[in-house]
Amino acid sequence: GRYMNKYAVIGNPVDHSLSPTIQAQFAKQIGLSMSYEKILAPLDGFTVVVKNFVSSGALGFNITVPFKVEAYDLIDDCTLNAKTAGAVNTIKVENDTLYGENTDGIGLVNDLCNNLQQSIKGKDILILGAGGATQGILLPLLECQPERILVANRTKAKSLKLASNYSEYGKVCGFGLDQIKAKPVDIIINATSASLDGKMPEIPSGVAAGALCYDLMYGRQTPFMQWARENSALEVTDGLGMLVEQAASAFAFWHGITPETKEVIKSLRETID
Ligand code: NDP
To answer: How many whole angstroms from 257 Cα to the centroid of ligand 1?
Structure first.
């Protein structure tokens, strides 16, 4: 009913989602009684699932693949960050209206800056891929004032368009994957979904020398992480920290309290590795 703290993650697939475990640990930290379930929405039935969940008294939900853009089209209002991304992963229900946010980018920035102790200011960043994840991370990264961000994508037209959409926020250039030079950069972020198929985009190995190499994917060693290690990367990491940090930002968006993340990352690391 209305008096229950009712939340969920909606996606397809959603069975593998670690969000319920993470949100339960955050709630426990502040002694909050909350339910957080996984809801599988049919690919053509996202809107109906959202309407039913909201009318059952839900106070908020996360949205995962492949509904982040559809969720953006459904909300009544959102943050500037979500508007720029054109995609939302977090919705708060207030007086029957839906308020959207996208916490993926701030999650990545917090993992890089707080957990991995990296600074972004003045750095040369290469992002591989120009899909939904890249859309979500570009503005928060640009707000940290890197020297520049190169977005390289298999389908070049997509990275060119994305780069031009963000040009008012900083120096960002779009390329094709085949145009990447062998010159090293400071940070490489793999935001392609190639790892899901056990693949690695073909790029010159020289670019990784001395770089921090970050795969947004988590839960296993990916071909990108392997490639980075073989090509003299300074540091190699998966996206588990980002996952927990984006969940922490969502929790703060709903409850107004930022939870502790370090212990949560540590405990998840022990269960998935
Ligand atoms: P999208 O489907 O929106 O985009 C996929 C991107 O990957 C496109 O740019 C596509 O290129 C590229 N791509 C796919 N296969 C290949 C390949 N074999 N070689 C080169 N490029 C390829 O996916 P998302 O952006 O939503 O997600 C990307 C990844 O980020 C996923 O692995 C997801 O799990 C992860 N993620 C992790 C988060 C976390 O919290 N850690 C949060 C959000 C996402 P093209 O345009 O040419 O098709």
So the answer is: 31
Query: Model-level pTM?
Result: 0.95
Q: Is the pLDDT of residue 1 over 50?
A: no
Q: 135 CB less than 6 Å from ligand 1?
A: no
Residue 170 falls in which region: left (phi positive, over 0), alpha (psi -120 to 50) or beta:
left
Contacts of 120 (CB under 8 A, 6+ apart): 109, 112, 113, 141, 144, 145, 146, 187
H/E stretch holding 251 reads: helix 240-255
Taking residues 9-28, what's their average pLDDT?
97
How many angstroms separate the alpha carbon of residue 256 from the centre of ligand 1?
Answer: 31
Per-residue pLDDT at 96: 87
Identify the pLDDT of residue 272: 81
Q: Which residues are catalytic?
A: 68
Ligand 1 centre distance from Cα of residue 173 (Å)? 18
Question: 137 alpha carbon to ligand 1 midpoint, in Å?
Answer: 12
Residues 153, 149: Cα–Cα separation, whole Å: 13
Could you tell me if residue 157 is left (phi over 0), alpha (psi between -120 and 50 degrees) or otherwise beta? alpha
> Which of 206, 210, 252 lies closest to 235 in space, CA to CA?
210
Mean pLDDT of 183-202: 93
Half-sphere exposure of 152 (CA within 13 A, CB side): 19
Tell me the per-residue pLDDT of 238-253, one tens digit each, with 9 for 90 and over.
999 999 999 999 999 9
Which token pair is 39? Answer: 């809801």
Is the Cβ atom of 192 under 6 angstroms away from ligand 1?
yes
Take atom 6 of ligand 1 and give the residue whose Cα is closest.
192
For ligand 1, mutation pick of 22, 193, 245, 269 (most atoms within 8 Å of CB):
193
